[in-house]
Amino acid sequence: MLAGINRVGDLEWEVPIGYVPGMRVPGRFFLSASLAGTLEEGAVRQLANVATMPGIVKYSLAMPDIHWGYGFPIGGVAAFDMTEGVISPGGVGFDINCGVRLITTPLTESDLAGKRRELIERLFAAIPTGVGAKSTLRISNKDLSRVMVEGARWAVERGFGTEADLARCEAEGAMSGADPDAVSSKARQRGVPQLGTLGAGNHFLEVQAVREILDPATAETFGLKEGQVCFMVHCGSRGLGHQVATDHLRTLEAALSKYRIHLPDRQLACAPIDSPEGRGYYGGMVCAANYAWANRQVIMHEARNVFAKMFGLDYDEMRLVYDVAHNVAKFERHEVDGRPVEVCVHRKGATRAFGPKAPEIPHEYAGVGQPVIIPGSMGTPSYLLCGTTTAMQKTWGSTCHGAGRVLSRSKVKKEVLGKEVREQLAGEGILVRAHSDAAIAEEAPQAYKPSQEVVRVVHVLGLSAIVARLEPLGVIKG
Predict the structure, then answer these.
(1) Has 401 been annotated as catalytic?
(2) Annotated catalytic residue: which of 67, 234, 326, 401?
(3) Which of 142, 167, 353, 453 could in theory staple to 391 by disulfide, Cβ–Cβ 3.0 to 4.6 A?
(4) What are the backbone dihedrals phi and psi of residue 91, each rounded to the nearest 5 degrees, phi first?
(5) 195-233 pLDDT, tens per residue?
(6) Apex CA 298: angle with CA 295 and CA 304, to 5°?
(7) Which CATH code, of 3.30.1490.20, 3.90.1860.10, 3.40.190.10, 3.40.50.1370, is assigned to 6-406+448-477?
């Protein structure tokens, strides 16, 4: 472990005040011995830098998938006082509301025998993927404004899903507080042609089999059975979200001197939550978050149609388990020093993990906690977990969001060939489809921490509890 860091538990480490000048609170992160070799000094320094920000409450936190990012480390979580605190795009990320949803089907793995490649090809044809992907939808600028306010509901009301889907989305698929006027014309131009597209990078649509049930009672509540075929959608707000972040970063950087905020890293540019600049960023961020929920809703609808036509399924037989956001700032009530307090929680590459009976989770899940979906890297297991009371007490109801990258895209492309990765995964029974082998190389399994170990850490700590393990059968890469 790095010098100057204190061990405070079997899997818990503290970055003390003074690790970097100006820290207001300690840093805390969660990591096992086997993951310690992946810890970057730069990510720990970013965690400490976050602890210098005005109004931060209790700790600057990071999950076991911690790695270097823009401003906050990826895997970073921080809550800010509503009066003295700030809001920061660096604590959300450029892909606002990058998130993941899990959908069950009535199929078993044997139903896909001899049909898997055709299924993957049909899904690939139905869902636009890649950097320049454009949607088959034709929406106007006026439509886009409604998408940014209504989120997934906009899609459902136009036939892209059912009312039941909305109840099974974080925030019911739309946060309040959207301000379309805070979204620039350039961001709008990028968003209009991309609704219903998968994007690139680590985004994917994956067909999976439930390989192991570890908590049968909770799995039954969530609708999962061993051997069942599911599919998972992982994507975000596309170019619109990236542009919203870019635009407001400029504004917030310029506001630092106005509010006499001194930071060790300008990538943490921020403004008071209730300032004009802070409100502007929040309103634009909510617009992008709602666009992302609508985007995943449309993609899910198209995938459902492929399954329905190919296997003779009824649309309603493909049930959304849940949809979680990874990159977002939200106003939430949490207990601080024994009393409920509203704070602004930033989750940057971290997942909400609200426990049983917590507000804002579907009534049908109240007894077991919020479903938590942790995707693996391409070719490795994904996990369904549930939120816990411990997470509410220790991490603002948060847990990890994925495996966590250990090799940059440029570095991994120098070390592996996409063709070799594709052939290796095919030998393991996993079909991969992408526009190019380069896209496959960028997301090779060795570019990431082992998802099994990252998930084990949060499970042992009680930040979320494993319900089921899902193995990939076929992957569409962006």
Answers:
(1) yes
(2) 401
(3) 353
(4) -95, 0
(5) 999 988 789 999 999 999 999 999 999 999 999 999 999
(6) 140
(7) 3.90.1860.10
